[in-house]
């Protein structure tokens, strides 16, 4: 699969994934007053954000035709 996540998008996804992961762990530990169901949902969302940031590809972007990666030199888009 071709990379379709740009550098700024990766930074945002990494930050959002970290916040979601910390919130999930806080919910599991009882430090945050969220429903128990929120912990696994937030955890999965955090893993998806961090996974797409690490690989540089987003399946939803591919389906929608979105590409935040800049074109390489000599490559036309």
Automatic annotation (TrEMBL):
The chain crosses the membrane at residues 12-32, 38-64. This is Inner membrane protein YgaP-like transmembrane domain-containing protein. Pfam families: YgaP-like_TM. Residues 1-71 form the Inner membrane protein YgaP-like transmembrane domain. InterPro entries: YgaP-like_TM. Keywords: Membrane, Transmembrane, Transmembrane helix. It comes from the Archaea. It comes from Halorubrum saccharovorum DSM 1137.
